[in-house]
Amino acid sequence: MTETPAAPAPVALPEPTTARPEPGQLTFKAPRRGKPPRHLADFSPAERKEAVEALGHKGFRAKQLSTHYFERLVDDPEQMTDLPKQVRSELVADLLPTLLTPIVQRVADDGQTMKYAWRLHDGAIVESVLMRYPKRVTICISSQAGCGMNCPFCATGQAGLTRNMSAGEIVEQVVWAARALRRGELAGGDDEDHEHPLRVSNVVFMGMGEALANYKASIGAIRRLTDPAPDGLGMSARGITMSTVGLVPGIDKLTAEGIPVTLALSLHAPDDELRDELVPINTRWKVDEALDAAHRYYEATGRRVSIEYALIRDINDQGWRADLLGEKLAARGKGWVHVNPIPLNPTPGSKWT
Fold first, then answer.
1. pLDDT for 327 beyond 80
2. Which of 243, 74, 124, 100 is nearest to 173 (CA)?
3. Diameter of the chain measured on Cα atoms
4. pTM of the predicted structure, to 2 decimals
5. DSSP label of 70
6. N or C, which end of the chain has less CB nearby within 10 Å?
7. CATH number for position 113
8. At 91, which CATH number?
């Protein structure tokens, strides 16, 4: 077992407006709300060119705009001096609208962790966490406002699903973090950081939401993160972790994409009896089905799978459950998986924490 640090405690957020789900209730279809403004990061390079041309401008302006946003991290039209003034104002207004408004920003770990709460265009709230570790910078991002998976020990799951996020909203969390790094807002730098500009090296889909339940936007965001600059941020797919509670069809779709991100399966129990309670998606796809899908992902990509296991005292931390988990993983082969035991953040009102 490889032990990892405890996840940062969530930022205190305003009370959700979505009705809380009944125990065990799953929500796959996001409630209908107004769509977010369209954004450059929602589009592939070809689609950006079409969007720019539809506004009456030359297609090459799309590449210029992408260079400013993804490579220079600029969305201020005044800084886009290679574009005619009238053109830049129109392109920014139409393709680089404000998607995230910070409403809470807190610093922890002597300035090496920054926690953000964002208000989206429709008032929905999401959060992300930027963290410095030795030789890497990681951001934990949200893919949905709320979550429909209803895990009883998770505050986000208990609040219910407000809506899916767009690819642009997902990507903007990472771009905002990159700007914060460029401004020197994250503490703990050293001489090497001055020689080589600090950048976000790892992105984990472990904030609000079940990313595989918002599949199209999440995959679109991953493509924008990994597209070579200036079409995207030019990140390595190996630095991106996709977490899931075990949506087996989604795992299989991700396998077929051929993008070698790291898959993290939030298991939390090796037996169906307990996991049915802890992770309600288990009533649809059982432990063995989720593990089989995770193993198929490993076989297709060669990427070792991470099993996330939140330790809950006297609930899922018995020795026999550890043995059962080991047996199930070993039965599928060697070297394909590692287990991360995670201390559980308390959730007010939850009997599990």
1. yes
2. 100
3. 68
4. 0.91
5. I
6. N
7. 3.20.20.70
8. 1.10.150.530
Question: Which helix (H) or strand (E) is 291 found in, with range?
Answer: helix 287-301
**DSSP-assigned letters across all residues of 195-221:** HS-----EEEE-SSS-GGGGHHHHHHH
Domain count of the fold of the chain: 2
One-letter identity of residue 59: G
The total number of residues shown for the chain amounts to 353
Which residues neighbour 11 within 8 Å (Cβ) at sequence distance 6 or greater? Answer: 104, 106, 115, 116, 117, 127
pLDDT of residue 190: 61
What is the span of the domain harbouring residue 76?
40-95
Looking only at the bridges linking them, the beta strands covering 305-311 and 262-266 are parallel
Rounded to 10 degrees, the C-alpha dihedral 305/310/311/314 comes to: -120
Q: Which of 95, 113, 137 is the last residue of a domain?
A: 95
Instruction: Show the beta-strand stretches assigned E in the chain.
Output: 101-108, 113-119, 125-133, 136-140, 144-146, 161-164, 202-205, 240-244, 262-266, 305-311, 337-343
| pLDDT (average), residues 280-299 | 98
Q: Are strands 113-119 and 125-133 parallel, antiparallel or unpaired?
A: antiparallel
Token pair 């129109």 is at which residue? 90
Location of structure tokens 């990061």 = 41
CB atoms within 10 A of CB 174: 22
